[in-house]
C-alpha cells in the first residue's frame, strides 16, 4: 500500500531536484482541530468509495432470493454463486478472448509504435512535424468519426465477427501510444546516444543498445495503458464481435449483456462483477510503479 | 509546432489520394445487387447434400426446440449438415449478412426488418422458388402473408406467429368480486382500480393492470386492435395523427394512468423484475391482469405452474365491441440471405421450417407459438392447451392486426412509442392533435431517409 | 507533467543539426534520415489507412444512401437536411452529450482536486487513502456500471435503503429520466482516480520554497493557494479539461450499459441499439445515436453525416486547443 505513496513522493522529489527537500516530518505542529477535521473528512470519503465494492461483494454471496431485499447482510454465505457464474456463461472463454485481445494489441503496438515514437522524438527528418500533428489529431478525435468506413473496410476483408479489426491496426501504430512514447523519449538525455554514435554505432544499434534500456519505464507505462484500454474496451467489441457466438466475446461485452440475456439474478451478476474487478486490483498491486509513473508522467488516461 | 502552408498543401494532397481510394473501394462493393435476377434450376434437386448455415435469435430452451427440427431435417437428408448459430439478434444478423459471413438461412425476431431486408436485397426474392415448387401461399394466415412481403416482393416466410391477449389471475379477480374478465377498455380500467392494493406508505402493492406505456408489452402496436387503429396508408405515409383510433387509445391510457398516479406507477414499474425472469410480475401476482403474448403460457408452465389464470382476447374500446376477438399478430420470419453459397439447399431448409406441416407443428408445440399455415391448425398433433387455444383463435380472427413492413423497420413504431411515453408524463392534453401531427411528419421524414432513392 | 509542456528538458541539445558539417556528419545524417523513414513508415501507413482514408470516406458516405448490403447511392444533401431539420433524436442526443461536457468534466476535476489536496500532507495513512481513491479508475467500466445500477436500484437497492434510514425517499436513479444523467455523474466521480493522481503529482511538484518565501512575507493560506498553488496547477488543469472534454464527446460505454441493465428488458432479438437511451432517451449520447443509425438502422450514409458533424465540432475544439494552450505539441520550434 505504501508503495504508491513512496512512488509519488519519489517522482515529486526527483522533479523538485535542486530545491531543498524538507524531511518527511511535519515542520510545524498542525492545530489538533484541523487534524481531526481532515481525518474525519478523509475517512468518510474513503468509506463512500469503498462501500460500493463491499455491497457488491455482500450481494455476490447471497442467495438469489435475498438480493434486493431488506437485509443487506447475507443470511447464508452462498459461495456457490462463484461456481454458478461459470455455468451460466462461457466465462473462461471471455477471459481468454480479453487476454488475447489485450496481449496481442499491446505486443503489436510496441513493435510498431516504439520505433515511430523514437524517430519522431530524436531524429530530424522532413515531414516529422506533419506526421506528429496528424498523430495528435488522430488521438484527440472521437473514434466514432472514422468508425463507419473502418467498419466497411473490415467487412470487405471478411474480418468482422472477430477481434482482429481491433488487434491488427496496432501493427501499424497506435496514435495515443506513439504520443506517450515520444513524450517519454524526449526526457531521456541524448548524451549517451551521442557517445555511442561517436564510437561508430549505427542508428539501429544505438536504439537497441542505448535508448531502449533507458526507456523501459515509459514503455512499460504505455503498454499498461493499451493493455487496460483493450481489456476494458466495450465499444470496439460491440461493433465487431457482437454477431459472433458469445464464446467469441471478450469479457466487457459478455458481462454487459449478461444479466439481460440469461435472465440472471443479481447475486450471480455481482459475483461476475467481483470476478472482473479482482484481477485488476491484484495487477495494480504488482505493477503499481508503472501505473503511477505512467499516469503522472503523461497525465493522460487510456 | 505550427502547420506551415507547405504542410497544408500536403494534407490536401493526401486527402485527394485517399478520396480517390474511397471511390475505388465503393465501386468494388457494387458487384451483385440483391440477386433478384438469379437463375434457378427448373426443378428442385432430388438429392440434397452439402453444408448450410442457419442463423436464429433463440437461446436456451427455445434453441433446443429449433435444434430438434433441424435434427429431423438432417435425418431426412443424411448428406446435409446444418450449422446452427443461435442467439443472433437482428442487428448482428444484418452485420453478418453485409459482411458475407456465411449466412444461408436466417430467422429474424420480428417482422420489422422485412421492409428493409426486402428493399436492400439482404434477403433474396423467393418468388421463383415458391412458383417452381408450388408452395401454397394461400395456406398462410392472411396477416402473416402480409407481413412477409414488401412492395409486392416476397422475400421472407413466416416462422410461427406471436399473438397478444389478456392474461388474468383468477384467484385475485374472484377475491375482488370480479367474476368475468373485462371485455371493454372501461371495464379493464374499473376492474384494475378495484384490484389495486396499496402499502401503508401509499405506494402500490399489487396492481390490477399496469397502464404505463413502456411497461413490459405495453406498446402502441399491441393496443391497436382495441380500436382498429392504423399505422400507414397505402403509400406508406403515416396516419398516426389522423386515425381517430389512436387518439381514443391515448386519451384512455393517459387518464387511466393518472387515476392511479404517475409517480406511483413509475416507481412500481421501475421496481419490476425482468419480464422474462421467474420474478415476472404476473407470475408472482404483483399484477392481476397483463397484456402479453402467447409464449407466456409456456413460461407459466415452466416458472409458475401453481398460478390459476385465464386468457382472453384483449378488451376493445366501448364503441368498437365488434372488433372483440382480435389482437396483435406478429411473428418470426425467415429468409435466404444475400450471398448464400448454396441457395437451393437454403431454400430446402427454409421450406421445411415454414411449409412442412409436421415441422411447423413440432415447432409450434415446442416453442408454444402460433403456427402460420392452416394445415398445422388442422393437425391433430397440435397440442391444444386451453390457455393456448385463446391465442390460436386470435390468430385466425379477422379483426387481428399487424404492423406493416416499412423501409424504416420498426422506426415508425418506436417514434410513436417514444412520443407516447413522454406524453403520458406531461400534464394536460390541450395540443394532442398538433403533437400527433409532428409525429406523422417525423415518421414520414425518417421513412424517406431510409428508402433507397 | 513537465514533459507535456516542454519538448525537451532544458540543457539537452537538439540532435546534430547545426553542428559542423563534416563529410562524416552529413553521411551520418543521410543514414539517420533513412532510418527515420524506416521507423515511421508503419505508423505512417497506419495513419493513412485507419485515419486519413476513413476521414475522407466518411465525408463521401455522408452524401449517400448506404445500407451496407447494396452499394452507396448519391443523395446530395438529403442526410444533412434530415439531420438539421427533421431528426428529433439528434437534438436530444446532442443535448445529453453537451450535458456531460458541461457537468461531468468540471465536477470531476473539482472533486479530484479536492481529494488530492487532502492527500498532499505526508502522514502514515496517506498511501492507503491514495490507493482507495485511485483504484475505482482502474476497474473495468462495465463492471462499475453493473455495480452502480444494482446499488441504485430504486426498489430495494442498498442506496435507497440507507437513505430511508435517514427518512429520505430516494429517487429512481437510473430509472428516472431526470436522475439518470446525475446517476452517471456519480459513477464518473467514483471513477475520478486518474485525474486525482495527476493533480496530486502536480501538487507535490509545487516547489516548497515558494510557500516558505510567501510565509516569510506574511501571506495567508488563501493567498498562497491563489498565487502559488493555482498557477502551478494550471497546466494540469488545462490538460484534464482537454482530455475530459474529448472523453465526454465520445461518452458511450457507461451510458449504454446502464441503460441496458436498468431497463431490465431482455432485448432478445432486437439488438443493443434498441435499448440505448433508457429511460426516455435521457442517456442517449451523440455517439450512441450515430451507432444506432449506422448499425441498428443500417443508415450508414446518415450515420456518416452525423460523424462529419461530430468531426467538425470535435475538430474545432482540437484546433482551438492546439492553437491556444500548446499542450500536447509543446512550445518548441
UniProtKB/TrEMBL annotation, chain A:
The keyword ATP-binding does not apply. It is a multi-pass membrane protein. The keyword Cell membrane applies. Keywords: Cell membrane, Membrane, Transmembrane, Transmembrane helix, Transport. This is L-arabinose transport system permease protein AraQ. Residues 95-287 form the ABC transmembrane type-1 domain. PANTHER family: ABC TRANSPORTER PERMEASE PROTEIN MG189-RELATED (PTHR43744:SF12), ABC TRANSPORTER PERMEASE PROTEIN MG189-RELATED-RELATED (PTHR43744). It is found in: Cell membrane.
UniProtKB/TrEMBL annotation, chain B:
Pfam families: SBP_bac_1. InterPro entries: SBP. Residues 1-26 form the signal peptide. The keyword Transport applies. Keywords: Signal, Transport. It comes from the Bacteria. GO terms for cellular component: ATP-binding cassette (ABC) transporter complex, substrate-binding subunit-containing. GO terms for molecular function: maltose binding. One of its GO terms (biological process) is maltodextrin transmembrane transport. Belongs to the bacterial solute-binding protein 1 family. This is Uncharacterized protein. It comes from Luteimicrobium xylanilyticum.
From TrEMBL, chain C:
Residues 94-321 form the ABC transmembrane type-1 domain. It is found in: Cell membrane. GO terms for cellular component: plasma membrane. The chain crosses the membrane at residues 35-63, 98-120, 132-152, 184-204, 225-252, 299-322. Its main location: membrane. It is a multi-pass membrane protein. Keywords: Cell membrane, Membrane, Transmembrane, Transmembrane helix, Transport. It comes from the Bacteria. GO terms for biological process: transmembrane transport. InterPro entries: ABC_transporter_permease (IPR051393), MalF_N (IPR035277), MetI-like (IPR000515), MetI-like_sf (IPR035906). Residues 1-28 are annotated as: Disordered. Belongs to the binding-protein-dependent transport system permease family. This is Putative ABC transporter permease protein YesP.
Amino acid at each position: 500500500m505504501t508503495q504508491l505513496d513512496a512512488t509519488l513522493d519519489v517522482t515529486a522529489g526527483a522533479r523538485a531536484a535542486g530545491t531543498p527537500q524538507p524531511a518527511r516530518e511535519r515542520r510545524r505542529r498542525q492545530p489538533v482541530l484541523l487534524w481531526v477535521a481532515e481525518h474525519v473528512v478523509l475517512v468518510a470519503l474513503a468509506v463512500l468509495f469503498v462501500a460500493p465494492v463491499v455491497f457488491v461483494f455482500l450481494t455476490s454471496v447471497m442467495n438469489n432470493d435475498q438480493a434486493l431485499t431488506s437485509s443487506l447482510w447475507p443470511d447464508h454465505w452462498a459461495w456457490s454463486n462463484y461456481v454458478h457464474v461459470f455455468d451460466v456463461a462461457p466465462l473462461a472463454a471471455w477471459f481468454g478472448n480479453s487476454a488475447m485481445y489485450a496481449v496481442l494489441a499491446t505486443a503489436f503496438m510496441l513493435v510498431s509504435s516504439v520505433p515511430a515514437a523514437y524517430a519522431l522524438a530524436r531524429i530530424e527528418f522532413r515531414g516529422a512535424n506533419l506526421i506528429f500533428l496528424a498523430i495528435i489529431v488522430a488521438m484527440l478525435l472521437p473514434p466514432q468519426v472514422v468508425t463507419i468506413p473502418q467498419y466497411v473496410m473490415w467487412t470487405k476483408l471478411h474480418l468482422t465477427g472477430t477481434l482482429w479489426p481491433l488487434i491488427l491496426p496496432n501493427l501499424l501504430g497506435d496514435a495515443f501510444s506513439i504520443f506517450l512514447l515520444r513524450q517519454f523519449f524526449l526526457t531521456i538525455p541524448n548524451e549517451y546516444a551521442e557517445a555511442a554514435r561517436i564510437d561508430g554505432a549505427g542508428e539501429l544499434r544505438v536504439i537497441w543498445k542505448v535508448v531502449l534500456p533507458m526507456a523501459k519505464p515509459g514503455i512499460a507505462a504505455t503498454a499498461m495503458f493499451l493493455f487496460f484500454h483493450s481489456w476494458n474496451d466495450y465499444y470496439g467489441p460491440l461493433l465487431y464481435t457482437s454477431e459472433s457466438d458469445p464464446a467469441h466475446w471478450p469479457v466487457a461485452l459478455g458481462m454487459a449483456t449478461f444479466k439481460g440475456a440469461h435472465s440472471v439474478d443479481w447475486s450471480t451478476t455481482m459475483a461476475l462483477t467481483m470476478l472482473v474487478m479482482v484481477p485488476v486490483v491484484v495487477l495494480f498491486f504488482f505493477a503499481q510503479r508503472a501505473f503511477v509513473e505512467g499516469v503522472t508522467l503523461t497525465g493522460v488516461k487510456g | 509546432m505550427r502547420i506551415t502552408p507547405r504542410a497544408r498543401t500536403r494534407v490536401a494532397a493526401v486527402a485527394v489520394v485517399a478520396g480517390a481510394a474511397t471511390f475505388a473501394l465503393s465501386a468494388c462493393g457494387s458487384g451483385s445487387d440483391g440477386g433478384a435476377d438469379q437463375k434457378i434450376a427448373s426443378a428442385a434437386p432430388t438429392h440434397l447434400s452439402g453444408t448450410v448455415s442457419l442463423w436464429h435469435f433463440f437461446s436456451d430452451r427455445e434453441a433446443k426446440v429449433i435444434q430438434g427440427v433441424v435434427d429431423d431435417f438432417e435425418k431426412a437428408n443424411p448428406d446435409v449438415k446444418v450449422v446452427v448459430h443461435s442467439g443472433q439478434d437482428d442487428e448482428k444478423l444484418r452485420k453478418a449478412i453485409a459482411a458475407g459471413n456465411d449466412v444461408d438461412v436466417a430467422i429474424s425476431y420480428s417482422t420489422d426488418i422485412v421492409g428493409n431486408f426486402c428493399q436492400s436485397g439482404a434477403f433474396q426474392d423467393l418468388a421463383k422458388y415458391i412458383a417452381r415448387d408450388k408452395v401454397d401461399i394461400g395456406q398462410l394466415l392472411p396477416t402473416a402473408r402480409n407481413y412477409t412481403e414488401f412492395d409486392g416482393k416476397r422475400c421472407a416466410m413466416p416462422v410461427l406467429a406471436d399473438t397478444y391477449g389478456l392474461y388474468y389471475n383468477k384467484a385475485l379477480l374472484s377475491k375482488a368480486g370480479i367474476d368475468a374478465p373485462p371485455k371493454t377498455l372501461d371495464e379493464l380500467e374499473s376492474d384494475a382500480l378495484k384490484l389495486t392494493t396499496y402499502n401503508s406508505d401509499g405506494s402500490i402493492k399489487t396492481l390490477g393492470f399496469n397502464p404505463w406505456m413502456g411497461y413490459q408489452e405495453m406498446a402502441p402496436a399491441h393496443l391497436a386492435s382495441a380500436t382498429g387503429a392504423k399505422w400507414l396508408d397505402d403509400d406508406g405515409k403515416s396516419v398516426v395523427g389522423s386515425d381517430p383510433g389512436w387518439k381514443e387509445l391515448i386519451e384512455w391510457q393517459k387518464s387511466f394512468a393518472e387515476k392511479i398516479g404517475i409517480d406511483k406507477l413509475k416507481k412500481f414499474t421501475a421496481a419490476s423484475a425482468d419480464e422474462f425472469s421467474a420474478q415476472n410480475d404476473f407470475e408472482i401476482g404483483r399484477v392481476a391482469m397483463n397484456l402479453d403474448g402467447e409464449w407466456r403460457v409456456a413460461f407459466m408452465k415452466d416458472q409458475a405452474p401453481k398460478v390459476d389464470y385465464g386468457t382472453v382476447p384483449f378488451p376493445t374500446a366501448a364503441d368498437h365491441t365488434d372488433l372483440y376477438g382480435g389482437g396483435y399478430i406478429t411473428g418470426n420470419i425467415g429468409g435466404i440471405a444475400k450471398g448464400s453459397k448454396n441457395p437451393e439447399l437454403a431454400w430446402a431448409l427454409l421450406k421445411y421450417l415454414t411449409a412442412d406441416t409436421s415441422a411447423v407443428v413440432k415447432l409450434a408445440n415446442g416453442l408454444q407459438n402460433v403456427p402460420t399455415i392452416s394445415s398445422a391448425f388442422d393437425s391433430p398433433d397440435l397440442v391444444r392447451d386451453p390457455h393456448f387455444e385463446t391465442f390460436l383463435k386470435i390468430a385466425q380472427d379477422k379483426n387481428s392486426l399487424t404492423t406493416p413492413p416499412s423501409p424504416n423497420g420498426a422506426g415508425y413504431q418506436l417514434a410513436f412509442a417514444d412520443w407516447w411515453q413522454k406524453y403520458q408524463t406531461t400534464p394536460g392534453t390541450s395540443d394532442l392533435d398538433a403533437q400527433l401531427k409532428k409525429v406523422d411528419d417525423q415518421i414520414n421524414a425518417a421513412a424517406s431517409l431510409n428508402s433507397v432513392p | 507533467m513537465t514533459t507535456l509542456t516542454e519538448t525537451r528538458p532544458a540543457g539537452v541539445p537538439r540532435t546534430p543539426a547545426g553542428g559542423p558539417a563534416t563529410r562524416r556528419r552529413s553521411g551520418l545524417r543521410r543514414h539517420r534520415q533513412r532510418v527515420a523513414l524506416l521507423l515511421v513508415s508503419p505508423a505512417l501507413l497506419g495513419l493513412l489507412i485507419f485515419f486519413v482514408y476513413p476521414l475522407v470516406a466518411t465525408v463521401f458516405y455522408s452524401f449517400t444512401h448506404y445500407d451496407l448490403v447494396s452499394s452507396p447511392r448519391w443523395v446530395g444533401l438529403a442526410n444533412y437536411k434530415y439531420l438539421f431539420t427533421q431528426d428529433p433524436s439528434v437534438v436530444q442526443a446532442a443535448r445529453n452529450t453537451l450535458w456531460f461536457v458541461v457537468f461531468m468534466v468540471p465536477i470531476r476535476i473539482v472533486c479530484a482536486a479536492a481529494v488530492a489536496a487532502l492527500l498532499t500532507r505526508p502522514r502514515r495513512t496517506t498511501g492507503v487513502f491514495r490507493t482507495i481513491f485511485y483504484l475505482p479508475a482502474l476497474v473495468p467500466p462495465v463492471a462499475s456500471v453493473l455495480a452502480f445500477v444494482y446499488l441504485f436500484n430504486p426498489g430495494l437497492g442498498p442506496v435507497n435503503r440507507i437513505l430511508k434510514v435517514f427518512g429520505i425517499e430516494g429517487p429512481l436513479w437510473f430509472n428516472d429520466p431526470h436522475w439518470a444523467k446525475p446517476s452517471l455523474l456519480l459513477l464518473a466521480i467514483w471513477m475520478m482516480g486518474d485525474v486525482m493522481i495527476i493533480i496530486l503529482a502536480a501538487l507535490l511538484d509545487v516547489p516548497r520554497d515558494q510557500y516558505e518565501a510567501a510565509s516569510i512575507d506574511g501571506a495567508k493560506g488563501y493567498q498562497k493557494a491563489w498565487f502559488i498553488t493555482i498557477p502551478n496547477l494550471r497546466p494540469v488543469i488545462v490538460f484534464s479539461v482537454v482530455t475530459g472534454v474529448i472523453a465526454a464527446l465520445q461518452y458511450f460505454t457507461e451510458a449504454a450499459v446502464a441503460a441496458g441493465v436498468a431497463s431490465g428488458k431482455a432485448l432478445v432479438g432486437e439488438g443493443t441499439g434498441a435499448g440505448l437511451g433508457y429511460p426516455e432517451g435521457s442517456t442517449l449520447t451523440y455517439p450512441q445515436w450515430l451507432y444506432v443509425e449506422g448499425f441498428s438502422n443500417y443508415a450508414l450514409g446518415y450515420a456518416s453525416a452525423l460523424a462529419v458533424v461530430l468531426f467538425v465540432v470535435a475538430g474545432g475544439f482540437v484546433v482551438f486547443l492546439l492553437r491556444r494552450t500548446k499542450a500536447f505539441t509543446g512550445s518548441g520550434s
